[in-house]
Amino acid sequence: MKQIIVYDAAGKEQEKINLDLAISKKDESPRTFSYVVKSLLLNWRQGTVSSKSRGEVSFSNKKPWKQKGTGRARAGSLRSPIWRKGGTVFGPQPRTRTTSVNKKQTKLVFNNILSTFLNENKLFCLDYNISKESRPSTKNVFNSLKNLELNNKKAVLFLSFEDDFNFVSFRNIPNLNVISYSQPNVYDITNCDCWIVLKKDLDLFKNMVLSWN
Predict the structure, then answer these.
(1) Are residues 90 and 133 in the same domain?
(2) What are the backbone dihedrals phi and psi of residue 13, each rounded to the nearest 5 degrees, phi first?
(3) What is the mean predicted confidence (pLDDT) over 47-61?
(4) What's the pLDDT tens digit per position in 91-130?
């Protein structure tokens, strides 16, 4: 049974909480992990880059000069790719790139990531909650992370989608990436040094990771 330490805003240890997670570690598959990450990056590409061919450039298609008698090389159009501001040969065109990943592969990768972060003690639980009567404060949040020596580490903070007060406080910290419990992705939760969970959201965290089993 894995235990996590709960820290207060001053960075002091408050208590240890047992994570009652009935999750069995699955066999690691670097090949599946690589495929899932590459699929995410590929699907995130907008595919809107484009260049104009010689048929799309807004120049006249009139022959610049006559074929013979000028002493210059033959030229048929200002749109020629060998001319300045001419069209592009085999340039990029808008297209859609999509790949699919089945649920079994996704759960396997999430399970492996969770096991790694728990075994390496990269999960931090912070007892920090802003009441609706007070104002959000990025300064106070940054000081709390500084007390935990996380101000210079790349971290992921899991928050509820409806938690606007805490989101406003945490969102402006450069090394912190805020992710909703309902929308985790393999790339973001691995592209960091540690995870941060608020004590009030432990049940949400448990429900999220139980779906990875």
Answers:
(1) no
(2) -70, 130
(3) 91
(4) 999 988 889 999 999 999 999 999 999 889 899 999 887 6
